[in-house]
Write a structure and sequence with these properties.
The protein is built from eight helices and no strands. The protein is an all-alpha fold and about 170 residues long. It folds into two domains: about 80 residues, Rna Polymerase Sigma Factor, Chain: A; about 55 residues, Arc Repressor Mutant, subunit A (Orthogonal Bundle). Pfam families: Sigma70_r2, Sigma70_r4_2. Keywords: Sigma factor, Transcription, Transcription regulation. Belongs to the sigma-70 factor family. ECF subfamily.
């Protein structure tokens, strides 16, 4: 027995939008409560019975999420809690100069890791990582199999992991 078309469509919508809504709540209320509020937003949308007829379900979901957040703020204000402290979000951040230095060091380490690889392996890895190409597209462009692309990228990733393990 298969699920009704609207349930299948909602499942696909949920998979596509969950990370965005979760990110919204994570920024607004912190990591601890974000998952529960994300679930509540999707349950309200599905429970409304309007999903199948909505022209812009993403905007409707965003409105539901914003309303949930605002209701939560109002409730906290009544209880006297304005903004809870989230250590990951509100903690001290390292100076910008240190971040740039660490980023440069990591990039240099990656280039040192990739340099000894064969030209083809390095090219395939960079096509995937820098240009964002899918394995199938790389395989088609270079005239190799998808499995060959996987093997080349696997070699490059293993080499990068070994180099970054030495840095930490």
């Amino acid at each position: 027995m298969t699920a009704p078309a609207s349930a299948v469509a909602f499942d696909a919508f949920y998979r596509a939008e969950r990370a965005r809504v979760h990110g919204f709540f994570r920024r607004k209320v912190g990591r601890d409560e974000a998952a529960d509020l994300t679930q509540e937003a999707f349950m309200r949308l599905y429970g409304s019975g309007r999903f199948a007829t909505l022209e812009y379900p993403r905007a409707y979901l965003a409105k539901i999420a914003r309303n949930i957040w605002l209701n939560r703020l109002r409730q906290q204000r009544r209880q006297g809690v304005l903004y809870p402290f989230d250590e990951e979000r509100d903690g001290v951040t390292p100076p910008e100069q240190e971040r740039r230095f660490e980023g440069k060091e990591l990039r240099r380490a990656y280039w040192r890791a990739l340099r000894p690889l064969s030209r083809k392996t390095r090219r395939i890895f960079l096509m995937h990582r820098l240009r964002g190409m899918a394995y199938r597209d790389i395989a088609d462009e270079l005239g190799v199999s998808c499995k060959a692309v996987e093997n080349h990228i696997g070699r490059a990733l293993a080499r990068c992991r070994r180099v970054t393990a030495r840095l930490t």
